[in-house]
Specification:
This protein is of the alpha+beta class. It has a single domain, classed as Sandwich (Hypothetical Protein Aq_1857, Chain: A), CATH 2.60.300.12. It is 18% helix and 43% strand. It is built from two helices and nine strands. The chain has a six-stranded mixed β-sheet with strand order 4-5-2-3-9-8. It has a three-stranded mixed β-sheet with strand order 1-6-7. The protein starts with a strand and ends with a strand. The relative contact order is 0.26.
């Protein structure tokens, strides 16, 4: 099973953000799990140009996503999606390892 999957919608949004910053060729989206939020853990997204020895790099077309070793334990099987509707806009994680989530969807428990 892959650590993460990236939907076409998420791919297009990541690519657009990187292109707007002129960083498509040099940076990747780093997905981390850190402590915090209502349910104990939360996702952190940032652009990074460093891939460490213990990182996993996932390629989806011309977009790369980096996951560190510790975060990977919580992310196996997760799908990254991007939604843009009248009610919500942003990246959404569909994580089969999340036992609970907070009402706003920003944090989870595993």
């Amino acid at each position: 099973m892959a650590i993460i999957e990236i939907t076409d919608s998420a791919h297009n949004r990541i690519k657009s953000l990187l292109e707007n910053d002129g960083k498509l060729d040099s940076h990747a989206l780093r997905l981390k799990v850190v402590g915090g939020g209502c349910s104990g853990l939360r996702y952190e997204l940032l652009f990074d140009d460093v891939v460490g020895d213990a990182d996993t790099e996932i390629e989806h077309g011309d977009v790369r996503v980096i996951v560190d070793e510790k975060s990977a334990l919580y992310l196996v099987g997760t799908t990254i999606d991007f939604v843009d509707t009248l009610n919500e806009s942003g990246f959404k994680m569909q994580n089969p390892n999340a036992n609970s989530t907070c009402g706003c969807g920003e944090s989870f428990g595993a």
